[in-house]
């Protein structure tokens, strides 16, 4: 049977990523006097994947076979036990989440440099 618990590393990773982005956003807003880094489409896709993935895990449906690659308690779905399909959406959502964090950081850094250069030339 499927174990409904979500591994702690997933929760810690996603919350940590959000804390880092929130802190970066606050820093960016202070340094640029209220400017914002534009939202990217991949971020919306990430949110949808995680939302649907966690909803699937909560209702424990649909159940799919495990991949039988590694029976590790912190990687549900990779063992022989069946698991809710949502775990795969969560895994993809995590990859997208980390990708969007890198993109936001990069865009924010570039926009901050451009802002500081523009302020210095005024």
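Sequence proposed for the structure above (122 residues):
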């Amino acid at each position: 049977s499927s174990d409904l618990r979500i591994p702690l590393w997933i929760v810690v990773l996603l919350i940590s990523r959000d804390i880092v982005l929130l802190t970066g956003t606050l820093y960016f807003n202070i340094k640029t006097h209220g400017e914002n880094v534009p939202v990217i489409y991949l971020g919306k896709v990430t949110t949808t994947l995680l939302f649907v993935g966690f909803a699937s895990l909560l209702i424990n449906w649909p159940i799919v076979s495990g991949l039988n690659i590694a029976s590790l308690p912190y990687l549900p779905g990779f063992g022989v036990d069946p698991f809710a399909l949502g775990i795969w959406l969560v895994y993809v959502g995590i990859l997208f989440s980390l990708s969007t964090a890198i993109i936001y950081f990069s865009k924010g850094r570039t926009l901050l440099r451009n802002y500081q250069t523009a302020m210095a030339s005024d």
